Amino acid sequence: MSVKKKEKKPLHLAKMNIKKGDTVLIITGKDKDKEGTVSRALPQDSKVIVEGLNVVKKHVKPQGQTRQGGIIEKAMPLHVSNVMLKCTECGEPTRVGHDRRVMGDKERSVRVCKKCGKVIQDRTRSS
After folding, report:
1. Rounded to an integer, what distance in angstroms lies between the CA atom of residue 43 and that of residue 13?
2. Where in the numbering of this chain does the KOW domain appear (predicted)?
């Protein structure tokens, strides 16, 4: 019996507007209307992992001396279409637009809030 491998999308097809460190609102599912921070983005699968949300209990076997067995709680990935980015300026859940703006001395492509029109700041970048 052969096992089929799940094919991953090429990176150029998997453009996502949500990045690690963004605050998001979950809009569907068991954790609807809850907010959290994206701890990991999986662009090949178009999914994100939100800290402390979409948690499931998983039974794990012990692995020798390294890992103890038992029931652990694990945050599972959510599809990016089931979360909505919260604007850093107005604090509202919003869709994301892209715009070319002059930032410092360079012109860069930035994410823009569709409601207030302000630039959405990256939490992972310090500048």
Report:
1. 9
2. 17-44
The DSSP secondary-structure symbol of 68 reads -
For residue range 17-73, list pLDDT tens digits in order.
899 999 999 999 999 999 999 999 998 888 999 999 999 999 999 988 888 899 999
Nearest to 54 by CA among 75, 40, 37, 71: 75
Q: Which of 20, 14, 80 is nearest to 51 (CA)?
A: 20
Radius of gyration of the chain (CA): 18
Q: Choose the most confident range, by mean pLDDT, from 9-13, 30-34, 97-101.
A: 30-34
Q: Mapping DSSP to helix (H, G, I), strand (E, B) and coil, where does residue 12 land?
A: helix
What is the value of pTM for the model shown? 0.76
- Is the separation of the CB atoms in 76 and 51 below 8 Å? no
**Helix H or strand E encompassing 37:** strand 35-42
Q: Give the C-alpha separation, 73 to 2, whole Å.
A: 31
